[in-house]
Amino acid sequence: MVAATLLVERGSIYDQSEDWGSYEFVSLPSPGDRIAAHYNDGMHYLTVICVHHKPVSVAGAGEPERTAMAGASVVAKWTSSD
Question: FRET partner for 64 with CA separation of 20 to 30 A, picked from 8, 16, 56, 72?
Answer without folding.
Answer: 72
